[in-house]
Amino acid sequence: MLSIEPSALTERDTYKFLIGSIVPRPIAFVTTQHEDVINAAPFSYFNVVASNPPLISISVQRKNGVMKDTARNALRTKELVVHVVDESNVMDVNETAANLEADESELSRTNFTLQPSEIIATPGVKQAKVRFECVLHHHLPIEHDGETTADLMIARIVRFHIDRDLYEHGRIDAKRLAPVSRMAGNSYAKLGDLFDVERPN
Asked: In degrees to the nearest 10, what's the CA dihedral of 82, 58, 139, 133?
């Protein structure tokens, strides 16, 4: 068993250890808006925070201390739309990971079409089987050695949008959703085999 002190690692090595160990990771495909530009980008530092109220977390890593468009737009508008990535849309989602200028929309690289939201002004993407209209609940800058390295955003879901084919008796059918998760490097993972384990009383 290797024992490694994090401070002995480079930032890149730490990143590789984390994304290689904490797998698979769900992917948040996020749209935000600045004036007439719709920004879109995927993030795999993403999960559920609470169900009452419904809160999710997305951590947006900064590059050389510079805030990314998604975090900056969400802070300005207090809005974002989060989509679940699945087998049918993962290739288009991957295209939105391109580094474009703030006044360019990553959606121009995809076959996605915009879907107006019902509660917030920021639109979502029609092709996603699950999307959440969200308002920014809390923003926490992550600091290390005097530098802000990431923006942790807690978003509150104000409207669920779920494909009718997935929804049955109050539950979402994971197999029909066919979610895709993030591994290390360029690798992704499909749902795979499911199995049940009863919880102890």
From this structure: 10
